[in-house]
Amino acid sequence: DAAKPAVSLKETTIPDKFCRFDQHPGYIQMQIINRGAEQLGVESPFFRVHEGLAGATTIIAGHELINFASYNYLNLSGHPEVNQAATQAMQRYGTSVSASRIVSGERPIHRELEHALARTYGVDDAVVFVSGHATNVSTLGYLFGAKDLIIHDEYIHNSSIVGAQLSGARRLSFPHNDLDALEHLLKERRHQFERVVIIVEGLYSMDGDFPDLKRLVQLKQQHRVFLMVDEAHSFGVLGNSGKGLRELADVDATDVDIWMGTLSKTLSGCGGFIAGESALVENLRHLSPGFLYSVGIPAPIAAAAIKSLEIMAREPDRVRRLRSISEYFITQAKALKLNTGDSRGIAIIPVILGSSVNAARISSALFDRGINVQPILYPAVPEKSARLRFFLSCEHTQEQIDTTLNTLASLL
Ligand code: PMP
């Protein structure tokens, strides 16, 4: 009888868990963690609402707190000139460019920003995507394929891992900052693949340390592979004028094949960019799906980033102040015998507390005492290295740091 379904619903053996979102493994895991936190009486540190600008201080639930949880490193987000540039761009172009750039979303301000980024890096060109995360996903997903190899530091950001997975390339990681291990991998595996890319970060966002770029450049030249540096956290932070790991390590811009960065940290907006040689940038601009099939960045955001670059170049003192206040923080923290791990003491300094419960508890106690710092819990880091992660800004004062560290030490 053709009208009858082949299998009646009653007969199906498909379990409920495959048909219900409340039985999704991620959702179940989240509920277990939330219940655990509730039983321990720890308030959730997530989705706290900031009521105004988040810089060295912030307002949460009507209270002003010292803030170490925002990556407004040079205090440019909220800068009056940045706001004014964004407002003017909004008045002229509106809040959306209403199309992908390739099909009528292009505005003069897009290329202006890309040229400014390319000039800052000293490379041919740059291309800006609507999200930093999407920049890595789309760039890696598009450039590499099944016959290629992606080798990355084990602490690389999720966006690069997702991009590597999307590419279908073989993916291998090496222990954090262990370039001997990387060299060994290259010697053993390079010849088995067509294109190979090494991915590292300019400043690791959980640990505040960075790789030996000079040696990476030697390795990449020796083994004929590409080198990609994600400068999400190092751009605006490292080097005397904030030009990133290249400036600090003193290598040529063209020694790195793919410079990646975000607009969401120092550059006071959101979005990401790739800077490098024309052949790379043109290829991504015409063919990478995250650029091609996505809207162009809003003009006010482009204007904010251009103005931020301008202020950064005009006022190198911001970078110097960020460095000196960071040095103060790490020196004082070490004097109090706090464990700052391998942090190099510039802009990102963790205090490792050894368990997720401990980190969540201490973050909560600091919050109650007027200090906002995010705990980083398992699985974002291994359980034994759960931590508080301090983001510094050039506006933090020694007094704020003394208050914070003394309060923290009194809680341990
Ligand atoms: N790369 C790194 C190293 C990051 O830390 C982040 C996010 N903080 C991204 C990429 C993604 O950038 P965005 O938040 O601008 O999307």
UniProtKB/TrEMBL annotation:
UniProt-listed CDD domains: KBL_like
InterPro entries reported in the protein's UniProt record: Aminotransferase_I/II_large, AON_synthase_class-II, PyrdxlP-dep_Trfase, PyrdxlP-dep_Trfase_major, PyrdxlP-dep_Trfase_small
GO molecular function, one term: pyridoxal phosphate binding
Domain of life: Bacteria
Sequence ranges assigned to domain Aminotransferase class I/classII large in this UniProt record: 64-406
Keyword list, A-Z: Transferase
KW Transferase (keyword) present: yes
Cofactor (UniProt): pyridoxal 5'-phosphate
Pfam families hit by this protein: Aminotran_1_2 (PF00155)
Protein name, as recorded: 8-amino-7-oxononanoate synthase
UniProt source species: Amphritea atlantica
